[in-house]
């Protein structure tokens, strides 16, 4: 059994064939894929979508959506987390975090929504799913200021020291399609050397396509597109297995157990 710990199944890219995407995931052995919401206007619709499909979800405001977010969105998030307190499909607050790569985002505004959502996660006893993009140290500073029940640092690609700091705070680190590129030397080193208890798998579908789906800049300019989906997870896992010298069965067992440890509502695994 595989768990995709980060999949935007609610994204518009899946609108034409959302149900076939789910069926392909199940056929590939991906029994669960966690759907993190990125903006308040999608909370209710994505919650309903996931409940109908029996798939886990998280509610949060992504840093890229902070320009249009309002404090009333935090109030809505607080209310919906409370109303779903007994919903086993609600597994985390997320996707939240900080993005210091995309130009034009107000860092103070990002910090405001990040810290306030950490407070909500702590209030409701939930782990968090973190967006980490050139922001690991700032995220860690926030977690030391507002402690939460661990979670996942999604698409992590920081230093070994930063990785260890997240691990000590109860986090697992998400590895996905980027790992399949031979030039991803830092990422591959992390996947090979970190404690096995720190590793979870993800696709970030429809984004971060693995090497076999990647389109060059020229192909994209010509209109070609690649769309990642959760059914790709077992093949992504083969890269991790090769780096660690594991069987695919052991890779599935380890990463599933890790996901269920840091996101306890996923249990039983």
Automatic annotation (TrEMBL):
The keyword Transferase does not apply. It comes from the Bacteria. A divalent metal cation 2 binds at residues 131, 154. GO terms for molecular function: hydrolase activity, acting on ester bonds; metal ion binding. Its EC number is 3.1.21.-. It is an enzyme of class 3 (hydrolase). Keywords: Hydrolase, Metal-binding. Pfam families: TatD_DNase. SUPFAM superfamilies: Metallo-dependent hydrolases. The keyword Nuclease does not apply. Signal peptide: none annotated. Gene3D superfamilies: Metal-dependent hydrolases. A divalent metal cation 1 binds at residues 6, 8, 95, 204. Belongs to the metallo-dependent hydrolases superfamily. TatD-type hydrolase family. This is TatD DNase family protein. It comes from Inhella inkyongensis.
């Amino acid at each position: 059994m595989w768990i995709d710990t980060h999949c935007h199944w609610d994204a518009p890219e899946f609108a034409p064939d959302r149900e076939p995407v789910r069926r392909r995931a199940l056929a590939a052995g991906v029994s669960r894929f966690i759907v993190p919401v990125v903006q308040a206007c999608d909370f209710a619709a994505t919650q309903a979508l996931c409940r109908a499909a029996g798939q886990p979800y998280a509610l949060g405001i992504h840093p890229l959506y902070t320009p249009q977010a309002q404090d009333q969105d935090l109030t809505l998030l607080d209310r919906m987390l409370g109303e779903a307190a007994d919903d086993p499909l609600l597994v985390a607050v997320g996707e939240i975090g900080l993005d210091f790569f995309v130009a034009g985002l107000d860092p103070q505004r990002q910090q405001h929504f990040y810290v306030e959502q950490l407070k909500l996660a702590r209030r409701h006893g939930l782990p968090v799913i973190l967006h980490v993009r050139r922001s690991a140290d700032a995220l860690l500073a926030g977690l030391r200021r507002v402690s939460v029940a661990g979670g996942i640092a999604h698409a992590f690609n920081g230093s070994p020291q930063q990785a260890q700091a997240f691990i000590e705070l109860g986090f697992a680190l998400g590895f996905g399609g980027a790992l399949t590129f031979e030039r991803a030397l830092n990422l591959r080193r992390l996947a090979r050397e970190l404690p096995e208890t720190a590793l979870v798998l993800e696709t970030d579908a429809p984004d971060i396509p693995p090497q076999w789906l990647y389109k060059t800049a020229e192909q994209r300019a010509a209109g070609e597109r690649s769309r990642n989906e959760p059914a790709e997870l077992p093949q992504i896992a083969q890269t991790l297995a090769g780096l660690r010298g594991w069987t695919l069965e052991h890779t599935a067992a380890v990463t599933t157990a890790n996901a269920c440890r840091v996101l306890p509502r996923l249990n039983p695994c």
